[in-house]
Amino acid sequence: MSSKGLRTRVTSRIPNEVYAILEDRRRHAAAATSLSQFVSDVLALYVGRPDLAVELTESGQTKGQTK
Predict the structure, then answer these.
(1) pTM of this prediction?
(2) Per residue, what are the HEC states of 1-66?
(3) Interval 1-16: pLDDT, tens
């Protein structure tokens, strides 16, 4: 796997219900290879840095996917 650049590990305890929703959205949208990558991309988009999202686009699709 190629490097995704400098990163800092963030550990968070989230409610089980939130985890289930995130995992479900990731799986159904085939939006990212892992939940960790999905959350990283969602956060990058949330703070206005779509250039740092590796697999997810601003429209919520996987990069390279067309609608």
Answers:
(1) 0.74
(2) CCCCCCCCCCCCCCCHHHHHHHHHHHHHHCCCCCHHHHHHHHHHHHCCCHHHCCCECCCCCECCCC
(3) 677 788 899 999 999 9
